[in-house]
Amino acid sequence: xxxxxxxxxxxxxxxxxxxAGGAIVTGGTGVCGDGIAQALVLEGARVFxxxxxxxxxxxxxxxLSVSAEGSVGGIVADVGLYPDCRKLVAAAVERFGGxxxxxxxxxxxxxxxxxxxxxxxxxxxxxxxxxxxxxYCCREAVPLMRKAGAGYIFNISSTxxxxxxxxxxxxxxxxxxxxxxxxxxxKDVRYDGIRVSEIVIGSVSTDDRxxxxxxxxxxxxxxxxxxxxxxxxxxxxxxxxxxxxxxxPNR
Length: 251
Hints:
Rossmann fold, seven-stranded parallel beta sheet, about 15% strand
């Protein structure tokens, strides 16, 4: 993965305000997760990331450290495994003394095939990473945030929950589950000072998928995360749908 520095306006408004602990970004070695981690670091947050591959994790941490040496950390973890999620949250809290922000962004891609052609292994991995992993991380993070009386959980989702393209049974089911989990979580924790937002994103142009002008840019997703966090604690946007302004060509 190519680490691409981002340009985010209004730098520094998180530092010194509400973020006294750390921020966890799952899937922090991927393009979107890396962009979110970069933005949080530039805003002054202390950021802890995870990824499944040690080499990619090392590369991502080295790049993040250029902007904030000593304020970043990370471990190898598969969020589809509950023990790894427990280890991730515990390591972040040990490193930074608390947890203020959790961004669930981990993904494994998706296979579009008729339901009878999707293997049980693909189904389990898709549901495990996108949905179960989100539950696992929330289960570990919420008690810490509740005790602190504050926190913000961002769950990254997809417009697949709306479009429901044929062949996407595993991916569609996982992301629809994310919507249900997030909406319920909002109600579970809103009296504990914890805010929860689902960010539903459309097609994003990335290096590994090839740049297409009509698609969203990573910076667009990042800006939503930062803007939502900067809202006064009394305000909550529980769901954002971020679509490309123009439809795909020839459709």
